Amino acid sequence: MRIQGRRENRKKRTLFNSLLLLLFILLLPLLSPAGAQPADGVVITEADYQGLQAFKRSLVDPAGVLRSWNDTGLGACLGAWAGIKCVRGQVIAIQLPWRYLGGRLTEEIGQLTALRKLSLHDNLIGGQIPESIGFLPNLRGLYLFSNRFSGSIPASIGNCFALQAIDLSNNLLVGAIPSSVSNSSKLYRLNLSYNNLSGSIPAGIPRSPSLNFLSLNNNNLSGSVSDTWGDDNVTYQLQRLNIDNNSFSGSIPGTLSRLPLLLEITLSNNQFDGRIPEELGSLPKLQRLDLSSNSISGSFPVSFSNLSSLVELRLDNNLIDGRVPESVDGMQNLSIFSMKKNRLTGEIPETVGNLTNLSRLDFSDNEFDGGIPSSLIHLSNLTFFNVSNNNLSGPVPPALAQEFNESSFRGNIQLCGFSPSAPCPSPSPSPNLPPAESPPAQKTHRRRKLSTRDIILIAAGILLAVLLLLCCILLCCLLRKRTAISKKSKDAAAGRGEKPGGPSAGPEVESGGEAGGKLVHFDGPFVFTADDLLCATAEIMGKSTYGTVYKATLEDGHEVAVKRLREKIAKGQREFESEVNLLGKIRHENLLALRAYYLGPKGEKLLVFDYMSKGSLAAFLHARGPDAPINWATRMSIIHGTTRGLHHPNLKPTSSTQTHASRQHPPGPPTAAPTGSPLAAYSPPLMTAAAQLQVVRHAAPSRYRAPSSSKLKKANTKTDVYSLGVIFLELLTGKSPGETTNGADLPQWVASIVKEEWTNEVFDLELMREVEGNVGDELLNTLKLALHCVDPSPAARPEVGDVLQQLQEIKPDPGGSTDGGGAEPGKE
Predict the structure, then answer these.
(1) Which of 6, 269, 495, 600 is the right S-S partner for 517, CB 3.0 to 4.6 Å?
(2) Predicted structure pTM score
(3) E strand or H helix at 242, and its extent?
(4) What is the CATH class of 504-810?
């Protein structure tokens, strides 16, 4: 028994000692200094721990992001401290973007000697950038953009010889750019834009062979730009140079031609003078050249015909004179060609018509003479065209006159045929020749024989009188018919006890008539007959897979939009009428009202809508002048309107529908309530199932279409959401989906920029000027939502209703509701 008792005591002591040892191991980190670390190096070093605590104390953290930094350092390198990454107990990265952090940066950040990346962009941090940044020898990435840093850029930054990327843009920095900023032989990205920096560009920057991206735009920099770029013996890496909106003067440096990888040169809104260097025509990869709004003189460089990769050329608002060379068609990929407000003379070259990728051509406010080349009608991608205020003469090619309004041609006194107020004169008849060998005696005794011209004039007078008489008769008939229809409508409404034309009155049917067929009216501001519609003056607004859209001007001056559906893809008459009568009841602030439809005796089908005279979203965004900015409130209103239009419960849009919708009938000027929905939104319900499938699978390539849409067996809402996301990105970036570079579409380009933490470069420059208070948050949240909508995986995209709900959370729209349904069917 005694032996057994001793054994039990021994077991108890062993168990107690084991528990005591385990407790000691657990408490060891708390009993030892923070710097004491085990062999695996998980515990943070004392210097880094103290540096992070000072960093936390110097910041204002209203969102409580740094609340996790609350232990003795055990969790810092175990992933428990937000935004911290470690290696062997030393901090190598602090990443806290978009966290609403305020306050300032402490000088003690210099204690984090292993730090490689400091990313605090899109916060509210102010004060000076610490000089101790220069004590971080391993620093590779410094991302402090979109904050409120003030003071000068510390010269000590030149001690960080491992730096690869510096982005201090969109702050309040002043003073000169330190010459030491280019000391690192690995620096590939330098962005100091949107500050108040002054002085000139340090001499070392043009000589930096590793530099890939240089953006100094929107500062107060001045002086001449050094002509020491590149070296013939070294391949320089610079691809993008942006120094616009400064006060640089002198000549454009010709040594930029030594940078063979250049994709973009933007020098606009400065004070450059002299000639454009011919050497720039030797840049094989140049895609964008913007020298606008300077004082550049001389002639258009002939060497530019070698720029076969050029997509955008802006030389407007300068003093360039002489002729545009015939070899201009060498710029075969050119999409934007803007030469307005110069002193160019001579004729517009016929070869401009060979630039088949052109979407924007602006030769306005020059001294061009001669006619408009007929070759320009081949520019099928042209969405903006302006040759106003020149000395052009002769007739405008009919195709251009139909496509563009008279503002594109006005200011050319001798130009004709572009509007009813500027008709071209009829050709003069050939003069009448006197009969040969006519005896003089007969001339004195015979009355003068009527000439051919006299006969033509008499016949024309008789014909005119007959036409006037016929017009009077026709007018009387139409007035009688309209009076009879109006009386019939009133009598019918009176019999039902309702007001004619009200929403509850139902469709009004007119059968027969001089044109035959069947016209069905829904409620609307005015009534017209089938003959009125078919005899209206019409011009083509656009064509799509569903049919052709016309702007029709009725005899009484009212304007309507008429869509003629393709006969082979529309449903049969009975099914068509069933669907169209439902569509005619829809009334929604973001959908065009369907006012009537017409079924012709030979099977033709016409849809009649309100005409929107305010132009397209493309023109609204991309064809406006610099003095017509679009603020964030207006763009957000367009986003809300487009989403609500797509979310209407009575519509069944497809992927190609939303694209056509948002482009064809967008909002008006900033003061007007946007209307984001199109004629095309009504088309799919009226098409056969087979036709809808063909449209989705064989539609022409579009930057708005989801990449997978051509593989679908039927349309679905996820492809619509993708198109919606592209429109969001277009409004956020100010870029047309076809403008991006390196072959990437707009969603791919935005995603790549965001991935590299260069988010501020995504947004339109106009919007960046508004980044104050809640606007910055709204921009970022809308950007995240847009990227969610264009997710490559259809299953990952949200539903339209979810998009609308999130938009309301980002910025409530006082004119809309979260359900997206708008007014009930049949009600305004």
Answers:
(1) 600
(2) 0.65
(3) strand 240-242
(4) mainly alpha
Q: Which amino acid is at 766?
A: E
- In this structure, what token pair is assigned to residue 739? 């403008």
pLDDT tens-place string over residues 340-399: 999 999 999 999 999 999 999 999 999 999 999 999 999 989 999 999 999 999 999 999
* Residue 416, burial from CB neighbour count under 10 angstroms (0-12, 13-18, 19+): middle
Per-domain boundaries in the chain: 34-199, 504-810
Residue carrying structure tokens 């071209």: 424
Beta carbons of 77 and 44 less than 8 angstroms apart: yes
Identify residue 810 by its one-letter amino acid code. I
DSSP string, 330-395: G-TT--EEE--SSEE-SPPPGGGGG-TT-SEEE--SS--EEPPPGGGGG-TT--EEE--SSEEEEE
**Per-residue tokens: 508:** 């009004």
The sign of the dihedral angle between the CA atoms of 435, 441, 443, 445 is negative
Tell me if 781 sits within 8 A of 808, measured CB to CB: no
The letter for the amino acid at 764 is D
Nearest alpha-carbon partner for 58 in 123, 115, 152, 113: 123
d(CA 112, CA 156): 16
Smallest Cα–Cα separation from 140: which of 106, 97, 185?
185
In sequence order, what DSSP letters do the residues of 409-461 get, joined into one string?
TTT-TEEESSSTTSPPPPPPPPPPPPPTT--HHHHHHSPPPPPHHHHHHHHHH
**Residue 113 near residue 138 (C-beta atoms within 8 A):** yes
Task: Give 574-578 contacts, CB < 8 A, sequence gap 24+.
Answer: 576/605, 576/686, 577/520
How far is residue 85 CA from its own chain's centroid?
37
Q: Which of 808, 588, 547, 505 shows the shortest CA–CA distance to 684?
A: 547
The architecture of the domain spanning 34-199 is Alpha-Beta Horseshoe (3.80)
Where residue 668 falls (left for φ over 0; alpha for ψ -120 to 50; beta otherwise) is beta
Count Cα neighbours of 57 within 13 Å in the Cβ-side half-sphere.
10
At 524, list the tokens.
Answer: 């609307």
Tokens of 13: 């002591």
